[in-house]
Amino acid sequence: MSSTDDMQIFLTYGDIALASSLIIIVLILSWRLRLTLTKTLLTAAIRTIVQLSFIGLILAWIFAREQWYEVLLILTIMTLIAGGAAKNRVKRSYKGLFIDTLLAVSLSAVLVTSIAIFVILRVQPWYTPQFVIPILGLILGNSLTAISLTSNQLIEAFHEQQGRIEMMLSLSAKPFEAVHEQIRAAIINGMTPT
After folding, report:
1. Domain segments of the chain: what residues?
2. Cα–Cα distance, 16 to 60 (Å, whole number)
3. Which pLDDT score is estimated for 9?
4. Is-above-0.85 flag for pTM?
5. Which of 8, 85, 93, 167 has its CA 20 to 30 A from that of 158?
6. What backbone phi and psi angles, to 5 degrees, belong to 156?
7. CB atoms near residue 163 (< 10 Å)
8. pLDDT score recorded for residue 4
9. What is the pLDDT of residue 1?
């Protein structure tokens, strides 16, 4: 599969109007139901337009150049942002949380993206930005949701059941035995399909 075989797709003004109509519908509903979300929704819509336009310019430049080191830089930046976003979604922070979320996001993203690119799609060259950037973006989005859900539940369970965990440790339980139930429940929560 080569990136030169790809068809270029451009958005028309009709496409943009159709996408914009969705936010207009939500704004009308917010106004009619007096949800007081109009300002928040407008701010989010404008911010989205600016961010996506900026990202679109960068990606268009990277897609045209197809340099492995530029693609790798974008993938690294995406992963760092996802690690930070996962950390920010955790309600109770602790020292080292960013490193933990970054490692979890990075490991899952590298593993799944590698399988998709090398085994399933067999993209040549591997750094073809039209494939690797969107695939990594999808995987990062799902990973950071699962990681933040799991982390939130696990940390909350540790705080709520601190006395029980300490009692088990004092009765010679191994650390994993003392927190096994909390870990299991958190993993089930994080692995539940969204």
Report:
1. 1-65, 67-194
2. 18
3. 65
4. no
5. 85
6. -65, -40
7. 8
8. 45
9. 45
Q: The tokens 């197809």 sit on which residue?
A: 66
Q: Which of these, 107, 131, 108, lies nearest to 118 by C-alpha position?
A: 131
Q: Are 157 and 182 in contact (CB under 8 A)?
A: yes
Q: In the prediction, which pLDDT does 6 show?
A: 52
DSSP assignment letter at 172: T
Tokens of 162: 């601190």
Type of residue found at 43: T
The string of DSSP letters for 37-77 reads -HHHHHHHHHHHHHHHHHHHHHHHHHHHH--HHHHHHHHHH
Could you give the CA distance from residue 155 to residue 165 in angstroms, rounded to a whole number? 13
For the chain of 194 residues, list the mean pLDDT of each consecutive stretch of 10: 53 82 89 88 88 86 89 94 93 93 94 94 92 93 90 93 93 93 90 75
Cis peptide bond upstream of 134, omega within 30: no
The candidate with the shortest Cα–Cα distance to 78, out of 46, 102, 112, 47, is: 102
Q: Tell me, what's the pLDDT at 60? A: 86
Go through 21-33 and write b for each residue having 16 or more CB atoms within 10 A of its CB, e for each that does not. Answer: eeeeeeeeebeee
Output the six-digit token pair for 24: 């207009």
pLDDT, position 8: 59
* Residue 117: both structure tokens together: 């690119």
Residue carrying the six token digits 């494939």: 131
Q: Where are the alpha helices (DSSP H) in 89-122?
A: 97-114
The answer to whether 124 and 1 are in contact (CB under 8 A) is yes
Which tokens belong to 80?
């760092």
Instruction: Please give the DSSP secondary-structure letter assigned to residue 42.
Output: H
